[in-house]
Write a structure and sequence with these properties.
The protein is of the alpha+beta class. Helices cover 38% and strands 15% of the residues. It has 6 helices and 4 strands. It has helices at 30-42, 70-92, 112-127, 142-145, 156-162, 166-174; strands at 13-19, 49-56, 60-67, 104-108. It has a 4-stranded antiparallel sheet. A hairpin with a 3-residue loop joins strand 2 (49-56) and strand 3. Helix 1 (30-42) packs antiparallel against helix 2. The protein is globular.
Length: 188
């Protein structure tokens, strides 16, 4: 695979994402989402980064992270998708590549964008019309962000420093915002 254009640097924030090939799905059923999350916990993904937001979609994923260890992060991503896709391939009897390229990264240089990017990531299932209410999408950490679920995939201290309290985030997420503000950080 080609060398990464954006270097991953410890202490920096990144929007991490990727979309599968047009003829593939990343998650076919609820069991797939749960299996992915189980592997994420099993490989201790959060040792390599602090997670602010994530959303898993049928054909792509988003993570907003602050890197603690760039090398370890890349290894954990590789391990995560190797384990997950091997199980998926076996069950679905599929072959070939799932992703055209390695995961994509967008460096977030302005802290103001972090809040809006959290909203963009969490609102993704609404925009795709997978749910009518953001709270109904179980495959993101939105419920952790608003204090309604006690998951392990949110750095609560960092989230509070950057975004605010669960109540403040609920108010922010209700507001509409100009997506042009975060255009450089969105998925292609």
């Amino acid at each position: 695979m080609p060398k990464r254009v954006i270097s991953l640097i410890e202490g920096n924030f990144y929007h991490i994402y990727n979309r599968v090939e047009p003829d593939k799905m990343l998650f076919y059923k609820e069991k797939d989402y749960l299996n992915f999350l189980e592997i994420l916990n099993e490989i201790e993904f959060t040792k390599s980064c602090s997670i602010l937001a994530y959303t898993l979609m049928p054909n792509h994923y988003h993570f907003l992270v602050k890197l603690n260890s760039p090398d370890l992060f890349s290894k954990k991503m590789s391990l995560l998708f190797t384990k997950y896709l091997n199980k998926l391939r076996l069950r679905e009897n599929t072959q070939g590549r799932f992703f055209k390229n390695r995961f994509k990264t967008r460096w977030i240089g302005k802290l103001d964008y972090l809040v809006w990017l959290c909203c963009y990531i969490h609102k993704n299932p609404l925009k795709a019309r997978l749910v009518e209410r953001i709270e109904d999408w179980k495959y993101s950490n939105y419920l952790e962000c608003i204090g309604k679920r006690n998951g392990k995939l949110l750095d609560r201290k960092l989230f509070k420093e950057i975004v605010g309290t669960p109540e403040e985030y609920q108010e922010i997420i209700k507001q509409s915002f100009d997506e042009k503000l975060i255009e450089p950080y969105k998925i292609d």
